[in-house]
Amino acid sequence: MKKILVRPDDSVFVLTGAGISAESGLPAFRASDGLWAGYRVEDVCTPDAWRRDPAGVWAFYAARRDAGQKALPNPAHTALAELEAQLPGRFFLCTQNVDDLHERAGSVNLLHMHGELAKSRCERECGRPPVEDRTVYRALDDVPRCPCGGRLRPHIVFFGEIPLEMDRIQDEIAKAKLMLVVGTSGSVYPAASFVHWARQRGERTVYIGPEEPLNASAFTHVLEGKAGELLPGLIHVENMSSN
Q: Which pTM value belongs to this model?
């Protein structure tokens, strides 16, 4: 397989989705039957669901925490962490995933645009930042409250809420020369638009995943297969001395 070249002055933007976590045994967010781990998304991942049934929402995300803590990073996570180490100051990872597999593989300069399983925040949006929270709660009464009195909710971007740090994401895309998109279907917006933004700026765009994404026409290269098999060794970082 031909290697993807990263030149000495190139910056790389990486977007990852559910496919990379699925290779570690975590279910994709929305399966073909519209369910996520046997639940309707509307029952566990919307502001209405939280207002109507916070106990049910916490039960769902507590189970996701438990599964996430048992999962292990796979070779695709490791390959991205190793690529970052070769590109100090020139690598940015944006993930749609809420697990911490990238961090556990060694990634540092990354952003979770849809939130993080291992954090909680106040439902009142009182201004206090999210707190690290890995507890697998068994009942709603076990969930602590914010100092302001509000109930803590999972630090997850529900459907209908705005993804996190969109301005920063746009800035990082604008700096990049190469965009890698790994394991995402191209069906969830605004993330599905990122490749179009990159192409408008003349960037090279590479997709890696188990099936052709819905936005495949926007990529300069589409590589179908498991990311854990394709990513290791795929990227060649050229250094200044090789010029």
A: 0.93
